[in-house]
Amino acid sequence: MSQTDTLLEKKRDPLRIPKVALALFVTLIFLFPIIWMFFVSLKPESQPATTPLEWFLPPYTFVNYVDIIGGSDIFLWVWNSFIVGIITTALTLVLTSLAAFALSKMQFRYRRALFVFFIAGLMVPGEAMIIPLYEIIGNLNLLDTYSGLILPMIAAPLGVIILKSFFDGVPNEVIESAQIDGCSDIRLFWNIVLPLAKPALAAIGILTFIGSWNNFLWPYLAIISESLYTLPVGIPMYNSNYSESFILPMTVNALASVPVIIAFLIFEKQIVKGISFTGIKG
């Protein structure tokens, strides 16, 4: 079928206009809270609003953003979240890929039992492990440190399962041929198997970074020093100081959303592919 025929079929689709209208309506519903947040952040602190429409009307001011930048540690929170997210993602990719390669392509006793153990790890709620995890990190004197934030988060059973499923799709003939040529397990992993797993690694990396960036409960329990606050912890702490106000807390949330929105616009295709990939066997 030619491109012209495809265009003609699209034009003949009687539901095309309702579909587009519905898509635009749903998009507006999802964008409305973000748009409203930015308009509220531009309102003067002393400006009352009696109707919803007044939130979108002048006057506007950027004084709120100046006050937030000068009166809070939002850039420090973003930096801490970025550092923790990057290191957590890197370590998770290294450990999960090595574990998945061993379970998929190396022969040893209790291999299947060990894989079942990883699957069982998905059935344990994260909240059920908070207390023993807190005691372990406390006994290791890692509370209120970057290490205490990062190390508990690099255990990712889902990543091991996804990568093992992907590695299982690599033909054993390729592995055996490389071994006959004298390729060691490390070279086999690094030069042959790992390059083929880039889509799976991207999916796990994106999901791990997003999970680390949005993680609130563990950083809230493990961190005491304000200098180590991540963004999900710093924003509620700042908002609690303005419990009777809503413009400044809304401004700090709008400012904290900017890096995430920019990152999504840049890596939109990778994020969508990564999330959809987790439901596909490699």
TrEMBL record:
Predominant subcellular localization, coarse grouping: membrane
Q: Which GO terms describe its cellular component?
A: plasma membrane
Q: How does it sit in the membrane?
A: Multi-pass membrane protein
Q: Where is the ABC transmembrane type-1 domain?
A: 78-267
- What CDD domains does this protein map onto? TM_PBP2
Q: Keywords assigned by UniProt?
A: Cell membrane, Membrane, Transmembrane, Transmembrane helix, Transport
Compartments where found: Cell membrane
Pfam families xref list = BPD_transp_1
Question: SUPFAM superfamilies, per this entry?
Answer: MetI-like
- Gene Ontology BP terms: transmembrane transport
Superkingdom, natural source: Bacteria
PANTHER family associated with the record: ABC TRANSPORTER PERMEASE PROTEIN MG189-RELATED, ABC TRANSPORTER PERMEASE PROTEIN MG189-RELATED-RELATED
Q: Can you tell me which family this protein belongs to? A: Belongs to the binding-protein-dependent transport system permease family.
Would you tell me the protein name for this molecule? Carbohydrate ABC transporter permease
Organism this protein belongs to: Alkalicoccobacillus porphyridii
